[in-house]
Amino acid sequence: MMMSQTLLFISLTLLILPLFFSTTTLAALSPLGAPLQPTPAPTPPTAAPTKPLVPTSPGDNSPDTTATTSSDIVGILRKANSFNIFVRLLKTTQLINQLNSQLITIKSGGLTILAPDDSAFSELKPGFLNTLSDTQKQELLQFHVITDYVSSSNFDTLTNPVRTLAGTKPGKVELNVISYGGSVNISTGEVNTTINGIIYTDKHLAIYKVGKVLLPLEFFPSKIAKAPTLAPAPAIDAAAKAPKPDKEKPSSSENSSQSSQVVPTETSGAISMCGTLVSLVLGVVFVAVLTT
Predict the structure, then answer these.
(1) Integer CA distances (angstroms), 291 to 257, 277, 284, 288, in order
(2) 3-class SS letters over 244-261
(3) Is the pLDDT of residue 164 over 80?
(4) Contact yes or no for 187/176 (Cβ under 8 A)
(5) 3-class SS of residue 184
(6) Domains in the chain: ranges and CATH
(7) How far apart are CA 88 and CA 92, in angstroms?
(8) Which one, 7, 144, 273, 283, has the greatest CB density within 10 A?
(9) What is the Cα gyration radius of the chain?
(10) Strands, E, within 126-191: which ranges?
(11) pLDDT digit string, tens, across residues 262-273
């Protein structure tokens, strides 16, 4: 009886021990909690655009900030708003084709456009643009384009008068720029204004907003100051040009008159001396006679 109980106990122990060890092993291997998620890497900041964007006008919060290609001047001005008249003139005069072609083929330098907005054109005399010929309209727009790239900090390096696409016509088509204290003043002889903002800038193109339409003085002939004419050189008198002698020689007639005047003077002196001697001799003789 005791033997059977002992065998039963050993059998139960052999059955329970493997279960116990397997449970302990599973417990040791199983995690106590949910596995930790790996920490995500920080998102790198968005790179800044490589090209400057066309700034929105005041009050325009449009989310569209897509960069415009530098060769599309019309697209830049349209995105900036309120340059409709300037864009229309660029198209009607076909100057826009010339400007875009220059920007495409340019390798150094660039262009600087001084763009007046619609309010600047509204300040012109009513019907003024209609009085201009097609050639004058093209010259007006060319007068707003400087033939080199000028950054906002380099206006003080320009030499006046500044060369524009309108060419050089002293006293008629002259653009003078003065930069002082962060302000850029522009004068044409007829119009004085300032640069009010930057519309667009890159390596070869800069577009600035100006407060007034730049009118060349050539469009106002009555205001062009006439160039002073030099007085003709005075005629040189041949007699005055010839050197004068130190002392003029008297003529023959003068010599004869001088001789006639000198000779009597000397003769009268001799006669006077002779008379004196005769009187002296007679006086001595008279005194001698009386003493005898």
Answers:
(1) 53, 22, 11, 5
(2) CCCCCCCCHHHHHHHHHH
(3) yes
(4) yes
(5) strand
(6) 73-219 (2.30.180.10)
(7) 6
(8) 144
(9) 57
(10) 145-146, 176-180, 183-187
(11) 444 444 555 556
Q: Which helix (H) or strand (E) holds 111?
A: strand 111-116
| Secondary structure class of 276 (helix, strand, coil) | helix
CA distance linking residue 182 with residue 194, whole number of Å = 11
Which helix (H) or strand (E) element contains residue 11?
A: helix 2-29
Q: Which long-range contacts (CB under 8 A, 24 or more apart) does 121-127 make?
A: 121/85, 121/86, 121/213, 123/212, 123/213, 124/213
Question: 10 Å Cβ neighbour count for 115?
Answer: 23
**What distance in Å separates the CA atoms of residue 87 and residue 102, rounded to the nearest whole number?**
18
Cis peptide before 161 (omega within 30 of 0): yes
For residues 277 and 285, give the distance between their C-alpha atoms in angstroms, rounded to a whole number. 12
Single-letter amino acid code for the residue at 154: N
Return the structure tokens found at 106.
């340019």
